[in-house]
Amino acid sequence: MTGNAALAQLMDMGIPIGRAKAALQRSKGDAMTAAERVFSGEFDDIPSDDEDDGDQRTGLQTPEEGSSSRATAAAAMSDDEEDGYDDILMDDDEDDGGYDDFHFEDDGEHAPQDVDPYAGIFFSKDRTEHLIETVPRPVFLDMPLSSGAAGGPSVRKERVRILSRGEWMSGCPEGNEQSFLFQLYELLAEGALPCANGCGHKFPRSPEQFFALFSSFPAYTAHLADLIEVRCPDCDHMTCRACGELVNVGSNGKGKGKTHRWSINADGEIESLLHCLNLQGVIIGVGLHMIEEGFSAVPAPPTPEKDEAHPPKKRKVKKLISKFVLGGNDDEMSDSDASESDSPAFFGGGTGRGRSSAKGTGYSGTQNEDRSGQIAAERAQALNDSKTATLLSQVQVYLPALNRRSGPRASDHLVHPTALAHLRRRSGFVNDLLRNDSLMDMSNRGTLYRALFDWLEIVSSHESLASMLAMPQMRPMRTEPGPDRDSVSVVYEGGPSPRELLESVVIQATSALKGLTATAAKEEEKAVDLTQSVNALDIVQPPVVVDEEDQNGSLQAFCERIVQSAATIDRLLIDTKGEEFVKRMRETLPRLHTAVEVQESADATNDAIIKIYEEWARKVRFQYTDLINPNDPGKENYFHCYNEQIKKLVGMDAPKRSLAIAKELAILTTSLPSAWHSSIFLRVDDARVDCIKAMIIGPEGTPYENGCFIFDIFLPLEYNIKCPSVKSMTTNGGKYRYNPNLYNDGKVCLSLLGTWSGPGWVSGKSTLLQVLISIQSLILSEEPYLNEPGWANQAGTTASKQYSANVRRMVIEDAMGNNLANPPFPFENEIKTHFRLKADVIRAQLDRWKAIDDGKVTSFDSYSSVQQTIAATSQDGGSRGGTFDTTSKRLRGLLDALKPPPPTPASAAAVAAVKRTNPFRGAKKGGK
User: Can you give the residue ranges of the UBA domain (predicted)?
Assistant: First the structure.
């Protein structure tokens, strides 16, 4: 039976018995591998069983090769042959460690499938393929719309485009996929279909029968349901147009009347469309084309004559935004959705490095913001999401599913090769959606993402499909005119697998779950009487609204489903690919790190150091930690300037606040900048997720470059209706005012925080990420002098240059020197690693800064008059610091202790001279 099942599967594809048996023996019983070998021509030397009658088989399920294939397979072998054939397969299986149960019985139980059809193919994210693809002229026809279950076409018509053979076969091919795709299209779109009863009647075939792209998927399936079972006018028997088999509609296979009637069950299935493998292949292929077009809103492939904007250009712009504004990389930032509310424009202006002041940090902003465009875009997005989600749910009905509620069909067990090819090639929408690393946006677009996870669960639950989720995807990245007018040159590049992208979403979901549950659970353990706390503070806790609790529950269920989907995929991958494969895969997945050891070689190049630094920063940028004051663990005082406010809210929370914090944490886990030129590190208390500390590395090209700036952040009870509380902790003990918007008492002036004029905090929309990046890009700017009201037009003036020189001296002494000498909790490791990896760069930076220093001592008064402060040349020691030379010398000593400087050319030459004069110096012991 084991041999029969595999042999029958190959015969269902139209492979002659002799070739099928030889291919199975060489492929160790793997039917899919055997099929690929046959269609690649490996067994063409074995004569076809039907060559005598001149009727060549196509390699797919054809009319003459239908339901009798299993009986033929059994009859083709004597008992002795069958036993011997099974012995061969079993021997091969024992050698290979396992394919001992690759058949299935039609007893309703879901036996294992003979699994991964791509097992022998190497997939890589670094792969690039250049392909020539045909672009035929579009063909449109007026097709009658189905009248529904009543049967037959209606008088209404729709103009539809016919999917061409070139489009059907487009994509980066693997193995023998192109052969299967070509054969199925040829079988269903050309020639004639003979009556399954053998009466001699033939039904003409044409492309519009199976490859018409209707405006909706239900219209397409209704069209198929009307024509799939055709009644022979000569013998009254019913034939399946897809596979050519008899359809048992009436007694003896004869039709009950002239009008074919069909129905849709509760799961959205049309029974007649689950009949055979060929139907599965064409429905999934056409359905995925519809999803692809609907998702991208591109009605047809690009024509070679037009010089249209190619997708890579769009991707490049997003990459630049990610890299230089948010400091992320391609894999971390969303290619499909970096929402407008997270963009710099929402902060109120540019980066603060131009020739005018940064909006949102001065008085040049406006109080009100026109969000009409954003609202209109959100409505359009919601409408498109709803359509795409509906399409996903409609197509997924016909995906292979062993747990189909109406009972599994043969096509659920034996997946058609073209269905596999299309699922591999046309699932780019999965990656595009998973690249959106904003859980807030995902939850807001919940309709679409719930449909996506329904889809992933079905794919991951089938052993023949699950491994695709771990494959790097080949995506079309560039399209150019081809060698002629009817072709294009397409460049495909490897990208992350869906499972890799899903892991970033899992990290966000896990953080969101922690944000939803941590406060309530931990605060019960810390037990203070809630009533007494509320009365003592005279605070009225916001009333609990049922809708808010529902939102929390919905987000929690959404996040739990994400985590469960990933676990299911991994479990099935273990079943199909083995534990070692999954172990190696997991080692490459992103994750939250608790401790990271950084090792760089002494001779590492600058590029290597940059790569090491950015990888380290990405791993440690977000961590949960215990922010209880380590010097006072018993009293549970937080090492935080908002300690009293944090303690007052013990046991108090509002559902809406929990929801907002959960979404914030989900975003922050994967969206914080982690770049060589500037990074942001965040530490969140394990028990109190509203207690946060941040460290921003001063951006390259500014007076703050490579300085470490610490901020304490507290999310109040009204968050995110109200903005967070933020205070700067890098002030040299309350002495230094680093910026017109960073006071020596720690006050941070920013319109988002309500402490400055300009676009303010938008309830329910603004985020902590916006605040952090605003500080990084708008306050820690190239010319901080311009942030002072009234001085926005003084770029490049002497006063501005003197101000920047003074800031540089502050940074050297405090943000660098003091922080390196006594690293503040909890960033000790991050500060030391930052300065160690950048030691040589900072030494060169000090040399550059020395060349443009004005020779004055550091001024650090209360900034009552910037100009007087800069111009002062003699003040008492209480309001003035050291010179550039004294502060930089101290910093160099700290850097040398952390990482000795490389030898200078002069010292290297001296060492070489010593070696030349003393031949024994440096020689190995025992050498001659």
Answer: 1-41
